[in-house]
Amino acid sequence: MKRTILLLFFFATSVVHSQEHMGTPVMRFDNYVNSFGAFGGLYLGKELVGEVGFGVAVLDEGENLDFYGARTSLEFNPSDDVYGIKIDLWKTLPIVPLNVGIGTVSYFQEGKFNQTIRPTIGLSYNYFRFSYAFDFLIGREHIHDLNIHQLFLRYYVPFHRKKRHQNILDEAE
Is 94 among the domain residues? Predict the structure, then answer.
């Protein structure tokens, strides 16, 4: 299962890389909105975990597909006193609602600490994301109540939005 997820992740990132850096014009639409906003989400694995945070994002509101951004957030599981500080990036592929992402989470629980790398893959529509994530632990495992495999549902609420227009095809840089 891990290998299948990793293969899908590397395939999706290679498609993005080939479009943006190998001379192929990237297909763009023209209703882009830059925004700053808040995120909220729920993670379901062996434990139910909540998430709140802030970030920046760009969305093509006309097509509801091309969506990417970066954010920082707090994950929390008050029943086990586990908290995590997360930084991540994601990108929804143009034309299809498939999203890929990568992040890192620093977990804390009563003096214990774990660091993880978290690749994600899933579906996006407008400001919603439904994805699967896998946490790769870095170093020794000190906290035993972590979700290694997890499904999550996340919603982005933009506060400050700035509309911009773009050509249908951008020249590759």
Answer: yes
CATH code of the domain covering residue 89: 2.40.160
**The residue to which tokens 């992402």 are assigned:** 101
Beta-strand ranges (E) seen in 15-173 are 26-27, 32-44, 48-60, 67-77, 82-92, 98-109, 112-125, 128-134, 136-138, 149-164, 169-170
Distance CA 50, CA 70 (A): 18
pLDDT tens-digit series, residues 119-159: 999 998 778 889 999 999 987 778 877 888 999 999 988 88
Question: pTM of the predicted model, to two decimals?
Answer: 0.71
Quote the number of domains for the chain: 1
- DSSP letter at 109 equals E
What is the C-alpha separation between 98 and 113, in angstroms, rounded? Answer: 32
